[in-house]
Design brief:
The complex is a heterodimer of chains A (166) and B (283). Chain A is of the alpha/beta class. Chain A is built from 5 helices and 8 strands. Chain B is globular and about 50 Å long.
C-alpha cells in the first residue's frame, strides 16, 4: 500500500499506476460543480487568491457540510471540464468517483496528473479529517472551496499515464 | 402516549437509520468480501464495512448524502393514529435530522424557485420535510414507525415503468435485470441492494418498493431475489464500478396484487452501498 503526502512532487505522481491503492495525507482542496468553474475562471484571468496554492495539490470533488464529506460524480459536466485547466494550474490529483472521458484521461497524462476514486465512506473520512477552512466563495455554503487537512484518505488510482481502470 | 416521548423515539430511529448497518447487512458484506476476486473492489468493500463500524460508534452519518426521510407506519388492530401523533413524528424527524446531523439540503421558495433552486438552501438540517407517510394494517399488536433515509444517487438511477409480462415471470425478471445492470453501472456507489416493487399502478409499485426496503433481509432471499442478484452480478460492475464479482449484494422484492391485464408496473431503486438505511421504533 502506497502512502503520499501533499504537496505531491512530479516524481510522486509519475510512479502511480492505474489500480494502485494509496493513502493520501496533508492539506487538500474540496469543491464541486458550483465552485470549480469559478476557480477555473479565476485561474485563467489571474484573479485567484494568491493564498490558494494549487501546486502539487488535490481537488476532492465533494461538498463540505455538517454531515461530512463524500465524493460526487466527477463526470458531471462542470467538474470534468475543470480537470485540465486546474491541472495546468498545478493540481496533481483529481479525486471523486465514476468514469471520466478518454480525452480527459489522455489530457491528464500529458500533464503528469491523475484521477483517483475514493469510496463514499463519510464516517471514516470524518475520523481522518482534522481541519476545515473555507478559502473561497463562502456564499456557496457547503459548495464553496474548502481546504481540509486529512490523514490517510483511502484512494484508488483510476486514470494515470493515459490508461483508465474503467 | 407522551408527545415528547414520540419525538425522541422517532429522532433516535432516524439517527440509527442514518448511522447503522443491520446485523444481516454486515454478514452480507463479510460474505461478499470473502468471495471477491478483484483486489480493488475487495478493498472498497472493506472500507465500506469499516465506515459502518465508525458511523455506528459515533452515531454519525454513513454517507454525506444523508437522504430524504421517508416514514412507514405499521398499525395493529388495537391501535390508532391521531393527527397529534403525526405531528410528533414529524417533529421527531426534524430533531433526528439536527442530531445526526443531516446534510442541510432543503430548498427554499415557491414552486418555481424550488425547481430552479433560485430560492437558496435552508441551512437548518431539520428543515428537510419528510415524504408523505405510508400506512399498513398489520396483525401484530404494534404501532411501529419505520424511518428510511433515501439518498439522491439511487433516485437519479431508479426506474418506474410498465412491463408487458406476456404471462411469464421470466419476461418480468429479464426486464428488471436489464434495468438494474444499467442503473448499477451508472450509480457509482456500488455494490447495490436492489429494491423492487411490482404493482398495478405507479403509486402502488413505488409503495411496494418502499415496503421491500422495510422488510428485506440479507439472510433470507427468495428464488426470484437470488435470480435477479445472480444475473446482475454477471455484469462484472463491481464495487464503485471497478469491476468484480459483487455488483449487487442482495435483491429485496415485493410483489403486490396484480391486475388482469397485459402490464405489470415495476419500480426499481438501485440502493447504494449504504442503503436501505432503515430503522424502527415502537410507540
Amino acid at each position: 500500500m502506497k502512502k503520499l503526502s501533499t504537496p505531491f512532487t512530479e516524481a510522486d505522481i509519475a510512479q502511480l499506476d492505474v489500480g494502485d491503492m494509496v493513502y493520501i495525507s496533508g492539506y487538500i482542496f474540496c469543491g464541486r460543480d458550483a465552485v470549480l468553474p469559478k476557480i477555473v475562471n479565476e485561474v485563467k484571468t489571474d484573479r485567484l487568491d494568491k493564498k490558494i496554492d494549487l501546486k502539487g495539490n488535490v481537488i476532492f470533488h465533494t461538498a463540505v457540510s455538517p454531515a461530512g464529506v463524500g465524493p460526487t460524480s466527477s463526470n458531471k459536466l462542470e467538474i470534468e471540464a475543470s480537470m485540465i485547466p486546474l491541472s495546468d494550474a498545478g493540481i496533481k490529483m483529481h479525486l471523486g468517483k465514476g468514469k471520466i472521458k478518454e480525452e480527459t484521461v489522455a489530457a491528464l497524462a500529458q500533464r503528469n496528473a491523475v484521477y483517483a476514486v475514493i469510496p463514499p465512506v463519510t464516517a471514516l473520512l470524518e475520523s481522518k479529517t482534522t481541519e476545515r477552512v473555507c478559502v473561497a466563495h463562502e456564499e456557496l455554503g457547503m459548495e464553496a472551496l474548502y481546504r481540509v487537512k486529512v490523514e490517510d484518505y483511502p484512494v484508488i488510482i483510476a486514470a494515470a499515464k493515459g490508461r483508465s481502470i474503467y | 402516549m407522551d408527545y415528547e416521548k414520540i419525538v425522541n423515539k422517532v429522532s433516535e430511529a432516524l439517527v440509527t437509520a442514518g448511522s447503522t448497518f443491520s446485523e444481516d447487512k454486515i454478514r452480507a458484506y463479510k460474505r461478499a468480501i470473502n468471495r471477491e476476486s478483484n483486489p480493488q473492489s475487495k478493498w472498497v468493500m472493506e472500507q465500506i464495512l469499516e465506515n459502518a463500524y465508525v458511523a455506528a460508534q459515533n452515531r454519525g452519518p454513513l454517507c454525506d448524502d444523508t437522504g430524504i426521510p421517508h416514514i412507514y407506519l405499521e398499525v395493529g388492530k388495537n391501535h390508532s393514529v391521531s393527527g397529534e401523533m403525526i405531528s410528533a413524528i414529524h417533529e421527531g424527524i426534524a430533531k433526528g435530522l439536527r442530531t445526526l446531523p443531516g446534510r442541510p439540503m432543503a430548498i427554499k421558495g415557491n414552486d418555481e424557485q424550488r425547481l430552479d433552486q433560485s430560492g437558496g438552501l435552508n441551512e437548518d438540517s431539520g428543515a428537510l420535510l419528510p415524504a408523505p407517510i405510508q400506512i399498513r394494517n398489520v396483525d401484530e399488536d404494534v404501532l411501529r414507525v419505520y424511518v428510511l433515509m433515501e439518498g439522491g444517487g439511487p433516485a437519479i438511477r431508479g426506474k418506474d415503468y410498465r412491463v408487458f409480462h406476456k404471462h411469464s415471470v421470466d419476461t418480468v425478471v429479464a426486464e428488471i435485470v436489464e434495468w438494474a445492470k444499467e442503473a448499477v453501472a451508472q450509480l457509482g456507489c456500488s455494490p447495490c441492494t436492489l429494491a423492487v416493487g411490482i404493482g398495478r399502478s405507479h403509486y402502488e409499485a413505488a409503495a411496494m418498493m418502499m415496503e421491500a426496503q422495510v422488510h428485506g433481509n440479507y439472510d433470507i432471499q427468495s428464488n426470484l431475489e437470488k435470480k435477479i442478484t445472480d444475473e446482475v452480478n454477471k455484469a462484472n460492475i463491481g464495487a464503485l464500478g471497478l469491476k468484480g464479482d459483487t455488483s449487487v449484494i442482495a435483491t429485496f422484492l415485493k410483489v403486490g396484487p396484480q391486475r388482469a391485464s397485459g402490464v405489470r408496473v415495476v419500480c426499481l431503486r438501485p440502493c447504494c452501498c449504504f442503503e436501505p438505511r432503515v430503522a424502527f421504533t415502537d410507540l
